[in-house]
Amino acid sequence: MSKPAPIIKDLLEYLDPNPTREGLRATPQRYADFIKDFFDAPKLDLSVFPNEGYDEMIVQSNIAFYSVCEHHLLPFFGYGAVAYIPNKHIVGLSGLALTLENFGRGLQTQERLTTQVAEFLTDKLQPKGVGVILTARHLCMEMRGLKKPDTQTTTSCLKGLFKNNSSTRSEFLHIVG
Ligand SMILES: [Zn+2]
Predict the structure, then answer these.
(1) Could you tell me the pTM of the whole model?
(2) Distance CA 40, CA 27 (A)
(3) What is the pLDDT of residue 2?
(4) At what angle do helices 27-39 and 5-15 cross, to 10 degrees?
(5) Of the four listed, 28, 79, 97, 123, which is most buried by Cβ atoms within 10 Å?
(6) 62: CA distance to ligand 1 center in Å?
(7) With contact defined as beta carbons under 8 Å apart, do 76 and 94 qualify?
(8) pLDDT digit string, tens, across residues 92-104
(9) Which residues fall within 8 angstroms of residue 166, CB to CB, at 6 or more apart?
(10) How many angstroms separate the alpha carbon of residue 142 from the centre of ligand 1?
């Protein structure tokens, strides 16, 4: 990623009548540091282990995530639940949260983020099924546009047994509900 600080300086000149005042001096670099840190997600390298016979659902819920809406350049953030039923492989528990965090770091839509997490885990683990549910607040809905505070948007992506088997699906929804 090229150095964004000069561009942010231009933006401050556009936004503020007195862009050289003391309080703004370090802002371009601070914001550039944030952009580098947030948008340059490290490569997702999950530890995968052989499954020693576990054949029930693994559910991680209440995973906080942050992302930026690509339509409005404003944050959306919330909580997700990520679940799978293993086949031959399991992933380290932190891997589920890490996957959601990682795909959130970029310009996103909530729909794409949900799908990418489910597809990545399907690819990586070849499990019997994957379920992802995200619930988020979008500042583009709250600070602008409709101006509806506290609106929550929920998306889901279900694969394998989570999609095709109604008792798996309801067990998942019951656990995360
Ligand atoms: Zn938006």
Answers:
(1) 0.94
(2) 19
(3) 53
(4) 120
(5) 28
(6) 23
(7) no
(8) 999 999 999 999 9
(9) none
(10) 10
CA of 73 to the centre of ligand 1 (A): 7
Distance 101 CA to ligand 1 centre (A): 19
Q: Report how far ligand 1's centroid is from the alpha carbon of 164 (Å).
A: 32
153 alpha carbon – ligand 1 mean position (Å):
12
Q: What number is the average pLDDT over the span 29-46?
A: 91
Task: Delimit the CATH 3.30.1130.10 region(s) of the chain.
Answer: 48-176
What would the two tokens of residue 129 be? 């099924």
- The string of DSSP codes covering 78-107 is EEEEEEEE-SSEEE-THHHHHHHHHHHSSE
Please report, as a single letter, which amino acid is at residue 177.
G
Q: What's the token pair of residue 171?
A: 């067990």
How far apart are the C-alpha atoms of 125 and 123, rounded to whole Å? 6
Residue 71 CA, ligand 1 centroid: distance in Å: 5
Q: SS3 string of 128-177?
A: CEEEEEEEEEEHHHHCCCCCCCCCCEEEEEEEEHHHHCHHHHHHHHHHHC
CA dist., res. 87 & res. 57, Å (int) = 11
What's the CATH code, domain 48-176? 3.30.1130.10
Q: What is the mean pLDDT of the chain?
A: 95
